[in-house]
Amino acid sequence: MKEQADTTTAESPPPLWKVRMPFWHRVDCFIRLWLLKSLAAIYFYCRRLVRQPPRRYQPTFVRRYPSRPMLNTRIFFPPNYRAGERLPLYLNIHGGGFAVGDAQVDDRFCVAWAGRTGMLVVSLDYRRVPRHPFPTATYDLVAQIKDVLADESLPIDPERITIGGFSAGGNLALSVSQLPPLHGRVKAAVVYYPIVDFGHPPPVKLASRPYTDGPLDKIGMMAWALDWGYVYLPPRIYMIAAQWDMLRLEGQQMIHRLAGLHDKEDQEAPFETSAYKWTLARGCTHGFTHGFTHGQEGNAAERTYRKKVCEDIYGQAHEWLKSVLA
Fold it and tell me: Which positions, given as ranges, span the membrane (predicted)?
């Protein structure tokens, strides 16, 4: 059975169609999601209460725009910004299985990215499942991005707009780039271990991981959450996947197909064409950029290795975006 998905405002694009899942599956997902959201909310609240982030890891300022006054938009200026100059824009979208987390979880990345690239970084939030199912998050993001681009107080170069995200945020980055208000304006996307295949259930994805003998990717434990909840993609895409990630294969196949390398979909070696770039983070699981899957701390060797991998990939992403926007 199919039903039309609710839109969130009168200005939203025409409603999309979605397949309605069996009733008891929806009940099961709903209960698990609320339990997960409650535990995550308690965890983040306690962590932020006990360990307030240093000022250097906080946004330059936070705004709420008229289209979505319930959502915070976190804005990060590069430290070398000079008044009057126009900056390339990087729109960041956080992950969390479309269900948990908020834009604040990416603050450290956004501060570092603004400092590394000299870009104006805008970190966006969105309403999450199960209370706000697809396509609410997509429309929330599109509305905020329209407000950001119309904000004359921000020194945005309209010819150098890019977007990126982690996991579910990577999916949303590719999603919002295709809608009419943004199509053609986003020059490039950098997506980290995105969810791009909803055609196969989580058990199939887990069983088809290329490295089933590697460490168990903990995203598999909450893959059921993804059950809840592309034609005009950006002209240039850099996709990063993790070697032991359940989502790795779908990202690998997608980027090879986009690049016209259909006969090499099973090859994990890095490649770069004029429009597409692919990198596999070896020895890593889903969420390696944030340290979530092995625990925020991990042992010293894991932290050192993860930091080295992230530094290398962020460096590649920076150089790639510089060439794209040149």
Answer: none
The CA R_g of the chain, rounded to the nearest whole Å, is: 19
Q: How confident is residue 211, by pLDDT bands cut at 50, 70 and 90?
A: low
Confirm if 307 and 289 have CB atoms less than 8 A apart. Answer: no
CB atoms within 10 A of CB 201: 12
Number of domain units in the chain: 1
Q: How far apart are CA 189 and CA 183, in angstroms?
A: 12
pTM above 0.85, yes or no: no
Which amino acid, residue 56? Answer: R
Q: What's the CATH code of the domain at 12?
A: 3.40.50.1820
Give the residue numbers spanning the domain of 245: 2-325
DSSP, residue by residue, 249-311: HHHHHHHHHHTT-GGGTT--S-EE-SSEEEEEETT--TTTTTT-TT-SS--HHHHHHHHHHHH
